[in-house]
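Action item from last week, closing it out:
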Amino acid sequence: MSDAEITMLLRQLLEDILSLFPKAGLATLVIFVTLLFVKLLNKAINWLVRTSRLEDYVKRAVPEGTRIPVNSLIIFLADAGVIATSTAIVVRIFVPEYTQAYRDLIAYIYRVGSVVVLSMLTFVIIDALVKSMRLERKTERFFTMLSLLLITLLLIDLAALSSEIKLALAIGIAIGIGLLIGVFSLWAFFGEQIDLLLRTLRSKEIAESRDRDLPVSSED
């Protein structure tokens, strides 16, 4: 490589680096404005929840309350939307619009956001349902396991895996969901009968073991 080519390459590299400075500055400004807006938004949401007494209405519907406070849940959802929007703006700054890479990045950002929001809402709804209906601990565990399996399916779709691996994992989790629902249905509808049958068999085994342990009387 000649000196002229090296000089041209260095000049091109320097021009590319210098062209990134305005974009980096604009992206930094977007991030700063986003953080400031999120802080103000959180204060506004806390004030609105406190003024409207939304927590009191939730406690009336769910006497024991939820594990995640209502204001924290609303703040999380609002912040997730703002952060997703600002991330899309930053991507737009560095990646030209109307390109395949831009569309793929934006779609991936909102897919991740939707999975996070759905996961949070699922656990909150399950917690409220269990506490309001006073379900058994086993039923709560069933709903939690079912939710985790469904969320895992969504995460598999986001993972950078081949289509064959995704298909195999999805089929395995689908089979697990089916077995989980089947076992829970069996326990829910026939739990008492199964428990009674097991107790009867256990009592018979105990009686038979006692009969075997008794000394046999010998006749003279």
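Closing note: The CA atoms of residues 10 and 16 lie 10 Å apart.
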